[in-house]
TrEMBL record, chains A, B:
Protein name: Cupin type-2 domain-containing protein
Listed Gene3D superfamilies: Jelly Rolls
Domain of life the protein comes from: Bacteria
Transmembrane segments: none
Organism placement in taxonomy: Bacteria, Pseudomonadati, Pseudomonadota, Gammaproteobacteria, Oceanospirillales
PANTHER family hit by this protein: 16.7 KDA PROTEIN IN WHIE LOCUS
Alphabetical list of InterPro entries matching this protein: Cupin_2, PKS_Associated_Protein, RmlC-like_jellyroll, RmlC_Cupin_sf
Residue ranges of every copy of the Cupin type-2 domain listed in the record: 29-92
Amino acid sequence: MGKINIQEKFALFSEEWTPKIIAESNGQLVKIAKGSGELVWHKHDNEDELFIVFKGHLTLKLRDQNIELAPGEMYVVPKGVEHCPVAEPDTHFLMVEPASTAHTGELQSEVTVAAEDQEWI
Amino acid sequence: MGKINIQEKFALFSEEWTPKIIAESNGQLVKIAKGSGELVWHKHDNEDELFIVFKGHLTLKLRDQNIELAPGEMYVVPKGVEHCPVAEPDTHFLMVEPASTAHTGELQSEVTVAAEDQEWI
């Protein structure tokens, strides 16, 4: 695999809340996604989920606080912690999480993208 | 742990080739470092090493090619692959790697920073 230009990868898709895989490292996948509005409340029982925002504004609603992320800011949602991502229009962010991580955790929602449908770009 | 502003973390230190830990996720550490000039040839037998450049220009010299990384570009050095990082003055980059990863792999050099000396900021 060659080098990866993150902005060029963001230009390859427009779907929201549909993570695209851009790299793998030590069994973890690096994914990028675009978001707008609210996803759903969910948690990952066994996986921490690292977020870095590249454009826009991402709020990670937790049950006891809101984490507000501007470009250049990151946060790790610890395993087992319920969260609900909310994004300003055209927010771009990157995630690092184990390959085993389900999109919306144990929750099966109409917005859920199954692992087998998460594509490499 | 709260949110992390990556630029604010870079402002906290000036040492070169001295990774600082800013987060942990799934047993992997997120580190940031500044570099200038050439580090040393080394490899990590058991760990992939993910690099994202934030400022400047980082060349990852491999035995068979050079990977040239500008801001917003990333690369994963696969486990076992010899590499030598070379940076323009005041280059800033982020790494994600397992907590077990030794700074310069099996090589003990005068530039090596021992794991116990890699500090959280």
